[in-house]
Amino acid sequence: GLPAPAFAQSAMPFPPDDPKAKAGGILKVAMEVQKMEDPATYSWVQMSNQTRHTLEYLSMTGPDNITRPMLAESWKPTEDLKTWTFNLRQGVLWHNGEEFTADHVAWNIARWLDPKTASSNIGLSFASAMVEDSDEKDAKGKPLKRMIKGALEVVDKHTLRLNLNKSVLSVPEDFYNYPTAIVHPSFKAPLSDNMIGTGPFALAELKVGDKCILKRVKKTTDGKDFKYWGGNVYLDEIHYYNFEADNQLSAFASGDVDTLYSFGVEQIDMANSLPGVIHVARTAQTICCRMKVTQKPFTDKRVRQAIVKAVDNAAVKTLIFPQGGDVGENHHVAPVHPDYAPLPPLKRDVAASKQLLQEAGFGNGLDVTIDVGNTDGPWHQTACEAMRDQMKEAGINMKINVMPAAKYWEIWDKTPFGCTAWTHRPLGTMVMSLGYRTGAPWNESSYSNPEFDKALDAAEGVLDPKERKGKLAVAEKILQDDAVMILPLFRPVYTIVTKDVNGYEGHPTQYHQFNKVWKA
Amino acid sequence: MSVSEQTPVLECRNLCISYFTRAGEIPAVVDFNLKLMPGEAHGIVGESGCGKSTVALAIMNYMGKNGGIVGGEILFEGRDMRTMSGEELRRIRGSKIAMVYQEPMASLNPSMKLGEQLAEVPIYHEGVSREQAIERSQKMLASVRLPDPQRIMNSYPHQISGGQQQRVVIAMALLSNPKLLLLDEPTTALDVTVEAGIVELIKEISAKFGTSLIYISHNLGLILETCSRLTVMYSGEAVESGDIGTVFTKMRHPYTRGLFSSIPVPGADKNMRPLRSIRGQLPLPFARPTGCYFGPRCDHFVAGRCDQGILPMLPVESGSSHFVRCVRFNEIDWSRATTRSDQHAPIETGAIVLNVSDMSKHYTIESGSAVLLGAKKTVKANERITFRAREAETIAIVGESGCGKSTFAKVLMGLEGATNGKVQLGDVDLANLPVQRRSENVISRLQMIFQNPFDTLNPSHSVGSQISRVIRKFGVERDPAKVEERVNQLLDIVKLPRDFAKRRPRQLSGGQKQRVGIARAFAGDPKIVIADEPVSALDVSVQAAVTGLLTDIQRENRTTLLFISHDLSVVRYLADRIIVMYLGKIMEKGTTEEIFSPPYHPYTEALLSAVPIADTSVKKRKIVLTGEIPSPSNPPPGCPFCTRCPYVMKGICDTQVPPQREMAPRHVIACHLDEATLRAMQPVITIEPREMEAELVAGGA
Amino acid sequence: MLKLIASRLLQMVLIMGVVSALLFFIFDSDKFKKQIAVAELGGFAVSALSDQDYQNWLERKGLNVPFYERYAKWVGGILTGDLGKSYQTNEPVATLVADRLKKTGILGFWVFALMIPLSLTFGIIAGMKEGSAQDRITSFISIVTTSLPEIATAVILMSIFALWLRWLPANSAMVGGWNWLALVLPVMTLVLYDFGYVARMTRASMAEVMTSQYIRTAILKGLPYKRVILRHALRNALIAPFTIIVLQMNWLLSGVVVVEFFFQYAGFGKLLLDAALFGDIYVIQAATLVAVFVAVLSQIISDVGYSFLNPRIRFS
Amino acid sequence: MAAITSIPVSPPPLSILKILQQPRSLIVLVLLMWLPLMLNVMLAGSISETVRPYLLLPAIPSALILYGVGVLSWRESPIAIIGLTLIFFWLIVAVSVPFLPLVDPNKPIAPFAPIGAVKNNHYFILGADFKGRDMLARTLWGCQRVLVWGVTATLVAYLVGCIFGLVAGYLGGWWDQVISFIANVLLSFPVMVLFILIMNYLGASGFNIVIAVTFASAPAIMRIVRGLTFDTKNRDYIFAAQTRGEHPLRIMIYELLPNARGPIIVDACLRLGYTTVAITTLTFLGLGLQPPDPDWGLMIKEAANVAKSPQFAYMLLIPALSVSSLILGFNLIADGLREMSLRD
Ligand SMILES: Nc1ncnc2c1ncn2[C@@H]1O[C@H](COP(=O)(O)OP(=O)(O)OP(=O)(O)O)[C@@H](O)[C@H]1O
Ligand SMILES: Nc1ncnc2c1ncn2[C@@H]1O[C@H](COP(=O)(O)OP(=O)(O)OP(=O)(O)O)[C@@H](O)[C@H]1O
Ligand SMILES: [Mg+2]
Ligand SMILES: [Mg+2]
Hints:
The complex is a heterotetramer. By secondary structure, chain A is of the alpha+beta class. Chain A contains 15 helices and 22 strands. In chain A, strand 8 (152-156) and strand 9 (159-163) form a beta hairpin. In chain A, helix 8 runs antiparallel to helix 10, helix 9 packs antiparallel against helix 11 (379-392) and helix 14 runs antiparallel to helix 15 (465-482).
């Protein structure tokens, strides 16, 4: 979390009310409409958008990438960042009329940590600091992780304490990760059958692959008036209409919708020609062409370095996203992260690359194959193609093996060399911790460097982002030098809204926050 | 009444017709003249492809996509049809000129009821009401002697038999009482007995309605029976025309003469008086010689005279209506003109090689009507066939279409298994031995010549390879050079140039294909050859060549020939013994002599009477069969012929199977008539003393 | 005829049995199970699952029992009218399929309603005079429209009529409720793609009829040209295309997936595509059964109709 | 009296042409053209880059000669010649594309460069796609994959279809029952499901497209061949073969098959068109050929989004029209062949 705004205790997480705002209206959004099974196992941001205005989070990261309290009114870590106390907002009502309490949150957290839930939240750093190996074993004989006794402590009705076994910095940010929506303890999958939330909207109709209609909650199910804790909400209804990614812009063009989930860079010219406001969000969304350091030839650091050195990240970025976006520096921390520490800019060095190859025994050239799933659009492939052309000069023959997205997800963490899309995360430490810490479940490169882990731990021990930058720089540097990946760029996210939609801002993770949006 | 005072119904003057094809312009008809008086019947004969149909269609002014009249005029009732507008033509077509085509089935719309197709004619030509039109159609159907016109009006074409279809087409043509009726081979597709009925009908019609007729046929016998005048065409031009009597007896063109000498008229004999075919072939339209088109094939050809310029039609005597297109017709000594072909001693027959006893073949078919689930029917294609064949003997099997001739051949060849009985080839019983299980030896002893020359050769392989395959297959020769030698020998035998071995079947004419078929059949030195209607699809002159060929080969190899045919005149010429079949059963069998002279089986009698004979000296007794052939799946329980037999005895013939009467040794007749009645029968064919100026058929030697 | 229909129906049941067993078998492979998991839980999540969790998930989905047991259960379900639930949407398959069928039915109806008259007219005009200018022009149009891939036609039509002229909606998702206008572009695309094929078949058939002897007979009977064409040629010329048109039913059911996909029209083809990509076995099963049914139905219709149109068969 | 019109005799054809028209030399030429192209595309990965282009050298003259022979032997049918020209245009491009002065078709140069633009020192004759790759190079290179996989898939489907059709048609009985039933099963399977199952099961690759197309097309081909076999097997020349005791296999292959070739070739021309579309569609749905090498289906797929803005429509139109021209070519040849066979 960031110090100043995050601790502004009474502040709402939303932008201030617009005095010109008008109530009423329906906001129509083009997006893939997916099913809502269990928020804890959400695998797509789209799913969370469908429930974001019903099921809320303890915190909320705004379009500016700053995390503010939401259902939690405030939080406070101890100095060592091991004990976090969350004061929950009072007067928050569930749609069934019950009052929102710390027990509910505790129930949610415990559920995430239960291996049976199979929630990806278990990979969040706060979560891994709350579990330990148990006596139980899974089918393969690996011990099952269970929550440490006392890790979760309900202090009083509106206070909750997390006792972590190591310092974790990103607890508030973690609590806005999309599968951490807080459900009522009466929850039973599938969610869409009986969704009880605290947000201003409730699900009125869901047809997967077709539409998802949200309506303002006026009354609780037990008949009381429902007053939303977050103040004024203007829209009457939010309609999600199912459009495949490729078709969203044409849906917008033909006036079917007011806004859309996102459109690709290849459509920006068309978008420019349409009446509407284009939002370009700066994000840490990226592709990571990572090498599995446990598989030949990438076990040899020199090979990896040779590959990395042969590529000019800036050139790749400019080619693919001429406007917006940031150049990547092969350590996965983005300029948009508050704790980003700039390192000396990367230089392409073909000679050095050749030299390294020579040393590694690939003097006659190196043949590698990269798997590309284009999971986030065809630009993955373009990036790889551009890199291939650059690598060729260093004597590296990179073959590009393109496969359907679904196929790619089957092998993303297994392939020796793959181009994986990583979504935005609010803090630099978070991505590093998820993807590069020894043994982390999403450590797709199987990278394991105790030094790096130590540096990362150190960085995660510092609350103040400015101060943290220095520590993170160390981790960044180690990761960069170990040449685990080519991370050429951080992509911008494009959306478009009609002129009469106000109060909308593009979010780095395409999270929809329509609480204060109003239609003219 | 003097003919010349009337306006002719139709007059063709110097008519020239061409087809425009990718190979260029094909002059299909050149300088054709014809004058047709009211009530007159004019015949046009000629080999296939000589332009007969083209003339007929030109008279209708319908030349198709690529045809055109390039010269001359066609006057219909004095008016040139070529100057008429489309609408005028439409009004004449179908009302004043009508046409009947070769294939009745194809010329009727398969998806319209016959009644409607008939009624159209008066509706569109005379504007009568529908009811009237239907009534008239019905009457017309009755007057072409169709039974139950009501039912036929409501039928679709495929629901009636071929003979009935042809009658419907004729009725359609007659509906508007046309001045001129064109008949383009109206009976070629029909059985002889049915043909006889139609011919009878046409004669009646021309007498009754006073309609002028143009009758096109390649069958001189038919023309003789129907027409009063005749034009002989050769390669696109008329070569001779005149009154039937004159032309038939005093022909003046070598081609006409050639045609007549290749027809197996009574009196021809394969040993004593073999047929003579015209040598060579009809030239292709664009490869015609200069001068006389017949020149290269003519025995009287004189270089420098016959190959000069364009020959005109000349009157035989000034003022006569007998014209001929030959510059030397006056110079030829017609009485000495023909040198007879070689005579042979009759072949001695040898031991019995094939013994068929009580062979039956039944097919089981699913019932056609699908509403009844799974009803099965039995088609008795062959019933208790019994006969023996000797070495070097020719046995003919005759009968109408569908009587089971081919079925018998298939059983013999092992393509079908017999249901009952025995077929003994030497000591092997072939009755139930499919060809796959037959030994090489048996297979090579039995070979077959197929009916349809266009079907008998695989279009994808060269002639040589198809013959050499047999040679290699039966192990006659193996060495490639010897195989080739043998192929060449065979081609020589069937009188084809050796370089035909490299040709593809499509480059061959029908007769040539049939000869290749024969060469192929004899390539394996078979002992028995079955020839399934090998000549019925061929022109007379080619037919003569092929039959001659068969006898020659038979004489040389002492092959037994099983000759299947529906044409009694060929059979008479070729066969030693004849088997007459009807609906799968043998009606009569005996030597050729015995079959062609009384006593007859009533069916044989009718068949004989139906065969048209192109000989003015032959007089026939008319026996026209009525009724249709019963369905082979539901034959009458007694004598199969009882439904059409003029001698039928109710109560006996239709209930009891007739006895096999042996009239003479090995002359068997299956009939209920008592022996006395049978013996008292009059001959069908009698030959009157000839009045021909030259002994054409007997030949001088 | 009855016998024919009965045997076809019997064959249909047989085919359905074979096809569905085959599908269950194919989808029983680990590969497809994993694919379903990935589609449902997301790629990261599945790879993060422990084996135990994966087994649990399989059990929850009912995928851990052998396929023949599932097959038997499924067959039992069908007999009681229960087609199972979709993995992807949690909806009962029956309503899902019924809804999509209805939509595709509407689309198909309009495609037929426009395509048949259009293609028959084109085909007949062309076939009336083979090789003439009118033939060449109509043939050229039909070949070109048919040879352009559907997707290209769709894009072109969309950018002209929807994005440029703005006459028609650019997609057919019909977010604001049923909208006939939204049907225009998909129908147009399909008609353009399909009509050429039928037109060419009609042309061939008409050309053949025009060379037949009975047409010559009709002309030489002195009938007006109009009657020759309309009464004599037409009916015979329509027999062959009829079968082809009926068989287009199959194609309209599932072959239109590109168009449905492109225009976001929630029809049967799209359902099938989504289900197949997801591995949504019960939807695939149900949809395949429907497809088999339609295939057999179209065969029956074409047989019955053919014999009805063609008296030679009807009365033989 | 009417003159007898003399027939204009066509000039005697060159004897070389005669030799070339022989089936044997045609087969040699086709193989010379086709094999290098096929190897080049199918085994793209395993042939070293230096050898790869030279492989195609013999194919260029073969293609040119074939085209010449085709034009001369079909000169009577302008339709067929137009079709032939369209197809050989692409065939010749396919075999000669490595030698054409083109930039690397996969090299991103200047995104969205319009037709005729000069950007980044490159003259874009047909513009650039949204990734900045040269459309001209992509289009010309793209025909290789479409041609090779389309033709191969159709050929294999025909091989399978013919074998089963011959067996079912000629042997009849149980063989026919079983084969026809299997064909019916495959035919009533929705094509898409079939494609998706196969491509999903086997993975997306050219060879699997061949398998998928075989599964989808072979039953229909089998039916055609079976029907033709039913027609021809009652011909006298088949009986003749039977009565000289030929083996059924020989009858099927030597006697029946060659006579079914007319309709089969015409159908194959049409089916090649459908196969090409099917491959394009598969690619569009993400199941077909995979990048990196360009092919038209891929280009259409990639451009589908961008091309909705009219100024970028060329990105889609160019590959679409290319596919279309190829299919048009096959259709025209089929038409021409049919008309020639009908003409007298
Ligand atoms: N449409 C056509 N195009 C080109 N040539 C044709 C056409 N119709 C007929 N011919 C040719 O014209 C000549 C005369 O044909 P026509 O059909 O008149 O002969 P025919 O005497 O009726 O023969 P057949 O006894 O076989 O019916 C033949 O050489 C034939 O090949
Ligand atoms: N395979 C078959 N199944 C059922 N019936 C058959 C079969 N083959 C022939 N028949 C029937 O058997 C009868 C005799 O046929 P076959 O072919 O032997 O006659 P045919 O005398 O050769 O006639 P044609 O002179 O027309 O050739 C016919 O009624 C025919 O319909
Ligand atoms: Mg004729
Ligand atoms: Mg027969």
